[in-house]
Every structure is written in C-alpha cells, then in structure tokens.
Specification:
There is one protein chain. With 520 residues, the protein is α+β, with helices and mostly antiparallel strands. The chain folds into 2 domains: 293 residues, Methylamine Dehydrogenase, Chain H (7 Propeller), CATH 2.130.10.10; 111 residues. Helices cover 29% and strands 30% of the residues. The chain has 11 helices and 28 strands. Helix 4 runs antiparallel to helix 5, helix 5 packs antiparallel against helix 7 and helix 9 runs parallel beside helix 11. About 1% of the residues have low confidence.
Length: 520
Amino acid sequence: MASYKPVVVPACPKLGERITQDTLYWRGYKTPVQIKEFGAVNKIDFSPVPPYNYAVTASSRIHIYGRYSQEPIKTFSRFRDAAYCATYRDDGRLLAAGSEDGGIRLFDISGKAPLRQFEGHTKPVHVVGFLSDKYRIFSGGDDYSSNLWDIPSATEIISYSEHTDYVRCGCASKVNADVFITGSYDHTVKLFDARTKSSVMTIEHGHPVESVLLFPSGGLLVSAGGRYVKVWDVLKGGQLLVSLKNHHKTVTCLCLNSSGQRLLSGSLDRHVKIYSTTSYKVVHSFNYATSILSLALSPEDETIVVGMTNGVLNVKHRKPEENNEKSQKKRQPAYRTYVKGRTYMPKQEDFCVSKPVKRVLRKYDKLLRSFQSSKALDAVLEPPIMLHTPEVTVAVMQELHRRGTLRSALAGRDEKQVNLLLTFVARRVIEPRFTPVLVTVADMITDIYQPVVGQSAIVDKQFLKLQEAIGKEIDYQEELLEVLGMMDTLFATFTKKRDTCLEENKSNGLTEIIETNRNY
C-alpha cells in the first residue's frame, strides 16, 4: 500500500503590508512593560525637564515613575478619595491634582505634604492645569464651573459657570498666559481669557468632550468626544478644519509628539491611532489588551505610556540605535567553515548512513488518512485556522471534492455547524484565490440544506448574507466588464489613428521620392 501524501496547501500570493517611514519608526519600540496600578489610570503626565519622570494618577494615589523604573520612585497619597489629573508645571518642580472631594492640591516634587490646598468646587474636580505664567492654576469640576486660582495666595481669582454639564478636560495656551480651554459633557469647548468675565469663544463639538489639546503655536485646537477627533482653527473663530472618525468607540485621550507633526489618540476600542498633522491620515496604529483611558508621550518621543481601565500601565521604550562599529569589529566565522564537507563525494568502499526523517502529520491529515471526511472538515473549521490560515480550510475542501466525499462531509450538520460553515463561505467566496472551490461548496450547501430553509433564523440570516455577498460580487464584475469594454474601445481608437498616421507618412514619403526622381 502506498504511503499517505499530506494535503498540499497552495501558496497564494498575499498583498504585502505597506511599509512606510512611519511604520518603521513606530515599530522601533521595544516589547512593552506592564505595571499594575491600584485602579483605572485616569491621567499620565511627563515632566517637561530631564530626566523626564512621569506622574500616574490612579485610585487615591499619584505615583511618580522614572523613565526606566518599574516601581514608583515617589508616591503622593494624601487623598481621602479618588485623585484626578495630576499635572506638572513647566519647570517640573510642582504638581497639581484634583480630587473626588472637590479640593485641589499642590505638591512640591521634593516633598510629601501639599504646599497649597484650593477649596471652592462643590463636586469632584477632574481638570487641573497650570497657566504658562506658572503662578496661576485653572480647574474644572462636576459642578459645571471652571475656576482660576492664584498660587501664592491660594485664593480664587475668578469662576466661570457657563458649562451646563460636567467639565472633564482642559488645557492652557503656551503662547498667551491668560488663555485656557475647557471641554464639557454638554458637547461644547469654551475658550476663556482671564482678563474677561466670560468665555471669548464657544465651539460645538457635537458629542460629550473627553479631551482637548492646543497645538504649540496656539492656532489649532483638537477636541475628542464620541468617535470623533475634530481639528479647529482658533484664529478663524473656531472654524472646523477636519473631522476624523477612525475609532469604533469613544475617544478618551489626545497627545502630540515633540515636533507637533504627529497626533496620537487613544480610545475605548483598545487602539491608539497616529495621524499626520499635515494630511490628517492615519499613519500607524497600536493595539492594546483593554480600553484606553490615558496616553502620554515623553518630550523626546523615547517612551509611550498608556493607562487602561483595568489598572494596567503599558510602557514602551524606543530601541537604542545599533552601533555599527562594534558589530563590524565582531569576528565572523570564515566562509570555508560553512561549506566544509559539502563537496565531498563518497568513495566506493564508504558506507553511507542516512538518518530517517520523521514526518509529522497535522490533525486533518491524520483524519483524511483514516477516511474520516466529516471530522477532517470540522478540524479545519476551527476559528484559529479559519481566521488566520483560510487557505488550509479551502485546500482540505478541495481534497474532499477530489475524493468525491465533499457532499457527505457537508451533510448531517446541526444549526451551529451550518452557521459556522456559511459564515466562512460568505466571507471568503469573493476572494479570487478561493472562489473556484467555494462556489462549488456553496452550491452543495444550498442543495443539501434547502429543505430546512425557514426552520432556523440563524441559518436563514447566513444564507441571506451569502446571497448578498455573491450579488455584490456579480455587480462588481459587471462594472469591471463595462470598464474593460470602454478601455478596449479607447485602445482600438488609438491604434487605428496611429496606423492611419503611419500610412499617411509612408505615402507622403513615396510621393516625395517620385517627385525627386522626376526632377533628376
């Protein structure tokens, strides 16, 4: 009896991923380090001065981490309840944070106890930040108010009560020391000037605003809320420049890189999208384990830190550049070491020993060898194979069809198995590399299970999806044929014109030669 030959899975060409400079750059980060916090991480902020430590606000504590440390180098825990939005001052010496009890605390990085406490909000304070003059703090709370505080005297300068819902985000202008911006769940973003008693600009975002960001120049404002990231021109009175909808769930945080040429957004859909600030197109994307609440990029773009809802802090560092001089100095084995003995020819008196190669069969090959067609098909309909290597599933179907046992393998299945089978066929039948096999499979499934149509809503839904997919593909093919017909007509016209021009040139050339001969 001849030995069993495993199923040959054809190597189908795939569309390669487009490799750009951004792809290479953002892939240049090491495997992330995971740090577990006490609760959901609501804010991450990097110190603007070396060594670029970062403050992480989670639960009722603020932890200060060094760039490469996995344990906090300092902890501020003087909070009765949850702490929010710990933010560094521009000189990196002071840290301000809001709290659940409505108070604002100001800490010296070198100390432990608060330097100042600001009382005035009646509900939790989720937004705290420094104005660029370093002597004033702005805040926003769940009492719908936005306040401005004086640091030396620890007193309230002015309070704005223009929002009609929770104030959950804000930022200050680096260009003008009197300007700060707040975003609220009332769908608006308001721009305040400390020299006036009311807001100077109101922008309607359209969704509860989760994060706002000002470009370093102060001319462009970015707001995030719902699934949208919107860019506004402040100098033109808040004109909308672009609206981005690349996330599937609420966008929770925004961040700019050091040059301002890349915008990062984190979302509850577990993705961080990176946009070019010239074209506002996504140039790269990171995927994380759970929903993202906070995001920060170090001032030199060396570290990306992401905080998630499960309390995990994800830290990625850039890989150091390899030193080419050291790698060149390392001695490599000579070429003759690798080719030694390859050209040796055995002599007549030599005894050759060949090591038998053990062949390991996959699960579906073992089942096919024992003629268990239905179980072999079940083995390749498992989700990991269907999703990542669909060519294996199609190859087994093709082998069963060659053996003449495909119909029997498809028959006798319950509702769940038929649903799985139809899902795979409806998804992959439009791919040219799988179409010849899957059209035959779809035809057999329709013939076998036609009598039970109408008895299961799930199976009926999958049949409708299959019909819709095939119908769309037929429409695409018809449109392509029309385009090909138009192109053939154009090419034929161009060819005809070219031939006519050549004939005219040849005839003109002959006429000129005849006239020249006559003159002689």
